[in-house]
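Usage

Read records sequentially. Each one opens with the input sequence:
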Amino acid sequence: MTNTPLRKQCCVVGGGPAGMMLGFLLARAGVDVAVLEKHQDFFRDFRGDTVHPSTLQLMYELGLLDEFLKLPHSQVARLTMQIGDEHLRVIDLTHLPTQCKYIALMPQWDFLNFLAAHGKRYKTFDLRMCAEATDLVEEGGRVVGIRAKAPEGELDIRADLVVGCDGRHSTVRAKAGLQSDDFGAPMDVLWFRITRKATDDPETFGHIESGALLVMLDRTDYWQCAYVIPKGGIDKVQATGIEAFRKRVVEFSPFLADRIGEIKSFDDVKLLTVAVDRLRQWWRPGLICIGDAAHAMSPIGGVGVNIAVQDAVAAANRLAAPLKAGKATDADLEAIQRRRAFPAQMTQRIQLTMQNRIIGPALQGTTRPKPPLLFKLMDLFPILRRIPARLLGLGVRPEHIRTPEAAPTAS
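and closes with the structure output:
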């Protein structure tokens, strides 16, 4: 059964960080927008939970920072690494020119629920949960809407613009026929959590040894851990058994020995298949992709959420006025790609350099790795830690809120 088509000025597909931020900002500016999210809620484990200073600065510009920081979170201002037997201090965020000089570690579902709650204050914000986009509606070579599966049946939404924010496995970009370049990755990531004690070192961040890398993020009462393995190596890890896996984790972080039994089986370990890709062209008439749908990021630095949010802000800044006036053009879509392609490209280039020169060789190596000279210099000279801090905390081209709050609040 096909319901009567809905009419919107914009239809955003995907309720992740890019989609929710874009939907919120457009509704805030008075644009009639629908956001489609295929799940019934935002609760998914081991999603990107790092909210960088650039995103916190946006919350400040929106006047929402104090309320946002009331949500449960922990803060990381300095990052350390252990490469082989050497401990190095490599990043210090405390000198950033922002309101918040730290990374907030916050469950992504809390972040998305926060944006959804504030979006619903505006009468032009229409969030549709359990609505999965299945196809594009096209007329004369232009995308004019979306078809989706919804609890009430097939949903047909006609819109002046469709925005794909549905992640690295984007249905929108596949249906649109947009072509991407795959830059490869030498690694995959196994995520798990384990109890954190107050006596644990709060600055433990990354530990690289031959054959693997362990990253530990302080989530106050637990560690969110990323165990990095060679690409396609999950079968080998599982073949050695859970006891061997637990033993290997303890070799990286001996203080976990008294609680490593919390990992009872590989059911407690989730696989993230790492991909790094980027669309050659992000748009076609009536449609644009942003966030992971346009450029899947490596998990290095945890920047994916924040790059996606920056894309959304740039898109809202460019599109709010023309969408509201019914005058959005291909030139607007091209301008968004032109502005955001450079930050995505440069961020991926940095990630690929780290993957290919540090992580890849360590994962394939048989001898204990040695830290690069640059890392040693950052440890020796604190001022050098500000350079990666700026790239990590603010990104290559941080965006700022330019959209007005023009819409009346919903009753």
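Summary fields computed downstream for this record:
- The chain has a mean pLDDT of 92.
- Residues 17 and 309 are 6 Å apart (CA to CA).
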